[in-house]
């Protein structure tokens, strides 16, 4: 067994919050590079060039890529043989978010009350944490700041099983078309299939954490992702909704078993500023 201290957890989450807001991971950067090579519309080319200029300036100046520094989403893989020392793991994560957003001069976007007063929490907490208990003696954190513009365009549907793949494709295309330029395309689509109402939504968000340099390990989904990406790009929405060949950079799909009478499908949209990072803490032997 290994012991992991809350101090190390807090430091790790703080660093991840600052780094993900300031720079894109290589897999997303490469998607944008590939899109620029293929883009033929002059306005779309100009917008993509401006995106690259923004990426470079943010990295050099240590400032956020986007003014919307998002809701902190964390998928954590907790090894069943890990011992947490010196406090609460949950509190240590939230503390890391508080410190990261303060030290990084990142915008606080969370409000206590979603309806009436909408008073800012002033530290960008709470972060939303989803746990998987796995074998081993490590903790892996997958973290992403999720902006409101792309999140607002995401949708879920409870389709009939008889609608099949064709029904899923039609729903995804309708979501992308209705979103238009609002989520700051070119976008990435996370698609969750099956499970239950809430599970499909969670799958769609988790799908956005994939390393996009790697193909989907499920052969059927790999082909389906490519097909959907091509169909979405034929819509011609383009970068920032001003036309072009590049509306969707990538499609990432996850699925789970579901009830015989159900076919849930959720589409979680991520903007071109698809910030995400993963880190693993090993700790020390007990």
Question: How do you describe this structure in short?
Answer:
The protein is of the alpha/beta class and 286 residues long. Helix content is 38%, strand content 25%.
Describe the structure.
The protein is built from 8 helices and 11 strands. It has 286 residues and is α/β, with parallel strands linked by helices. 38% of the residues lie in helices and 25% in strands. A 4-stranded mixed β-sheet has the order 4-2-5-10. Strands 6-9-7-8 form a 4-stranded mixed β-sheet. A 3-stranded mixed β-sheet has the order 3-1-11. The chain has 2 domains: 2-23 and 65-147 and 276-285, Dihydrodipicolinate Reductase, domain 2; 149-270, no CATH class.
Helix content: 25-40%
Number of strands: 11
**Strands ordered across the widest β-sheet:** 4-2-5-10
Provide the structure class.
alpha/beta
Question: What is the total domain count?
Answer: 2
The percentage of residues in β strands lies in: 25-35%
Q: Any idea what the radius of gyration is? A: 19 Å
Q: What is the N-to-C succession of helices and strands?
A: EHHHEEHEEHEHEHHEEEE
Unreliable spans: none
Helix count equals 8
Biggest pleated sheet: 4 strands, mixed
The span between the termini is 6 Å
- Molecular shape: globular
Q: Would you tell me the overall average pLDDT?
A: 97
